[in-house]
Each structure stands twice: as C-alpha cells, then as structure tokens.
Amino acid sequence: MSTYKLTYFNIHGRAEPIRFLLSYLNINFEDCRIEKEQWASVKPNTPFGKLPMLEVDGKVLHQTLAICRYLGKKAGLAGDNDWESVLIDIAVDNILDFWQEIIIYFYNTNEVTKAELGKRLFEVTTPFYLDKFEKIVSENGGYFVNDKLSWADIFFAAIWDYTKALVDIDIVEGRPNLSKLQKTVLNIPQIKLWTEKRPKNVRFY
Amino acid sequence: MSTYKLTYFNIHGRAEPIRFLLSYLNINFEDCRIEKEQWASVKPNTPFGKLPMLEVDGKVLHQTLAICRYLGKKAGLAGDNDWESVLIDIAVDNILDFWQEIIIYFYNTNEVTKAELGKRLFEVTTPFYLDKFEKIVSENGGYFVNDKLSWADIFFAAIWDYTKALVDIDIVEGRPNLSKLQKTVLNIPQIKLWTEKRPKNVRFY
C-alpha cells in the first residue's frame, strides 16, 4: 500500500481540495501542517519554494492543480474521455481564476489599491463568475460537467468555507444550483467524515 | 475531418503554445487574430471574457493550459501513464508560475511598485526558476520529464521569443540544456514550418 504525506500550512488554503480528494479516495494520509514560524526551515526542502506538496511513497509531487488532477484520475473523477477531461480542466481553471482575484485582494496591503480591488471583486468579479458557474451547473444536471460528479465539483466545494472566512464571500449563497452541488459534495460519506474530523477553525494568515 | 479555429489577439502571448501544438499535430487551423479595437465586440462572445479560445467543430474550448493539455494528449505528448502526466502538469505549472511573474511586472504601470517588481523579477525570480529548469532538463535527458518530448517542452519553447520581446529575458541564454531543448523543439519539422510561416514581428500590447 502506498503512503501519502501532504505538507501544507495549518490552514485550508490550497491544500483543502487535495485533502477532500484524498478523503474521497479513502486514502489514509499524513496531514502534515506547519506553522508560519516553521516555514523558513521547510521552504528549502520544497521543489520550488512553495506548498502544498504531496509525497507518494516518498516521491514528491507539488502544484495544487496537478496533484488534484492526478488524484481525480485515481478516483475516476477526471472524465471518461479526453473531451470530458478538457471540460473538467476548464471548469477548474475558471474556478481558480476567480479564486486568484480573491487571494490578490486579500493579500494586498496598499490602502488605495486594496479599495479599488475590493470594489471590483465584490461588485463585478464575484457576480460575474458565480452567475456563470450557477448557469453552468444548472445546465449540467447539478454538476460542472456532463451531469456527473468530477474533481471540479469537489474543488469548488472544498474552497467554500475558506473563501467565506477570508473575504466573507459565500460562493453558493442565493444560487440554488451551486448550493445544491455543495450539499451533494459535502454529503459524500468520506468527505462528510473528513469535514467532521479536520481541525474545526477555518484559520488564515 | 474536424475543423479548428483559434481566436486570440494578433500576438504570440498565451496562444503561441497552442499554435505550436496544433502545428505539431499537422492540424490545419484557422488562426483568427483580432486587434485591440475589435476586443470589445469579441469579448461578449467568449465563455469568460478571455482569450484564447479554440473552436473544435464549432464547440468552444478555452483556458490555455486546458487546451494545451488536450492537444498534448492528442499528440501523444501528455505522458504514458498517470505518473508521467502529473510530472508534465507540474512542469508546465512551474513554467507558468514563472511566466506570470513576468506578465505581472510587464503590465504594472505604477512607477514605484514596478521598480520593486522588476528588481525581484530580474535578480531573484528569473535565476531561481531558470536554474531549476536547467537542472531538471539536465537530469531528464534534455527534456522536462522522463527523457522524452512532452507538451511541457513545447510550451517552454513556444514562449521564448515573446518573453524576450516583452521583458528582454532570454530564457535559454547561458543555460546549455535549455538552449539545446529549445533547438530540439524548434527543429521539429512541423514546428519549424510554423515558425517560418507565422507573422514575423513579435508584437505585444
């Protein structure tokens, strides 16, 4: 049996979709969480100075989406053919594009530009992306792609509470199809189990 | 036979890796190039207000990496198994991380922050990434992954002259393994043909 060790900060962040997928796969992984103070000593041991990284039998993977796609394939959630796979990849890249805008805003420390970024994020970007996602999910039987669960759906559900904590944007509120999709994912037994046993506070720094 | 229509601005930018892969596949694609003035009228017809987009038999794909991965699979350049595929995905994500820093710097218009970004880009980020890439390629028989050509190599070679034009960074200069890899890709007959017939000037705006 392979061993899995996930290393990330002690927050949801970019690792939570990976934790969701590992849980979905019933993989018993070492959930190695480092604190900010440890980062300087951990950083030189990462491939490109970034986290998360996932060690599979000691072999190091990194890059969040690459890892998620790899686990998605293992779980049979990465499409039944190349066309379905590209649609799933597109869905995830769109979610990430939206998420990047949130992260850029959150970590901006300049008073003037932060106010501008915030205005754009809350008034333009958020409704733009979430309305499109709501429409896509309504047209795809409650999922992002082709009427069935994929790792795009799990990715989306996994970033929900962290996004809420970071910038107080509820990515499913007032959008019935996204709300339903989120419930569908959170009610998958293995994922339900994970959300019950993971650290309770949604922290960030 | 399927029809392919690629829509992008009249520059290399994010579309050039797609054009390289379509050429590698000997796919006769419509290379639809719009000028800045046309963007306002084209934008509402894109899935998420962005380019490039690739229409395959009229069905719209978007997101650069998703499209490249799809074409990479078609070309047999996306790995022979899931482990090889994830290594290729990681390589491309690393290249893109580096490229994003270049784009962020290039489009920054604030005098103060641009100077800071530039200092970091030229003195820290560029040698950091390119030294790592050089080492990876030296350890993988002249390629990014497992001693053989993948779409990561084609992606890397495709952004070379645009990056040089944008910020005057030659991503292969002084790094013999990256230089050799670039030559290997540019000497593939279909890609050589493409670079000879594409518009001559490396424009940007």
Automatic annotation (TrEMBL), chains A, B:
Signal peptide: none
Name of one Pfam family that matches: GST_N
InterPro entries associated with the record: Glutathione-S-Trfase_C-like (IPR010987), Glutathione-S-Trfase_C_sf (IPR036282), Glutathione_S-Trfase (IPR040079), Glutathione_S-Trfase_N (IPR004045), GST_C (IPR004046), GST_superfamily (IPR050213), Thioredoxin-like_sf (IPR036249)
Catalyzed chemical reaction(s): RX + glutathione = an S-substituted glutathione + a halide anion + H(+)
EC top class, as a word: transferase
GO molecular function: glutathione peroxidase activity; glutathione transferase activity
GO annotation, biological process: glutathione metabolic process
EC numbers for this chain: 2.5.1.18
Record field: transmembrane: none
Highest taxon, organism lineage: Eukaryota
Domain GST N-terminal: 2-79
Cited PROSITE patterns: GST_CTER, GST_NTER
Ranges where the GST C-terminal domain occurs: 81-203
The entry's keywords: Transferase
PANTHER family: GLUTATHIONE S-TRANSFERASE (PTHR11571), HEMATOPOIETIC PROSTAGLANDIN D SYNTHASE (PTHR11571:SF224)
UniProt family annotation: Belongs to the GST superfamily. Sigma family.
Record protein name field: glutathione transferase
